[in-house]
Amino acid sequence: MNPGTASARRDRQTRQARLWEVAFGLLFVVLFLLVGRQPVNPLAYWAVMIGGLIGGQWIYLRYYQSLDERARQRFMASWMAVGVVLTNAVTALLVWVLYTWLTSPPEQQDATTLSLPFWPVYLMLIGSMLAMWATNRYLRWKDGA
Description:
This protein is mostly helical.
């Protein structure tokens, strides 16, 4: 393969994006462990979390730029599936939490604040990632790739 062709350039960009992803993941784990020690410094914690979100989006952008047109469509469709699943699941959970709070006795309503439980939210995130994976697999099968 000629190093100047578009597919060679895309392969190189994809390898670079994946290398950035691995390096970023390792760096983020180390920073998270350092910042998460007691006592937690709120400024450092939020700086690492916001940096992690921005860095993750930058890696997704780099990966997206390295894709060909059909792969970009698959990428966007799989992210759309994540958005649909996650939006519906979060809405259902919010409605359920509000319903259980409204139907609880008044003395419990005063003592309890509305909050989202950890495990359902975590399971929603896992479900949305599975929706992304399934959508990507289906579109690859449909395209014959």
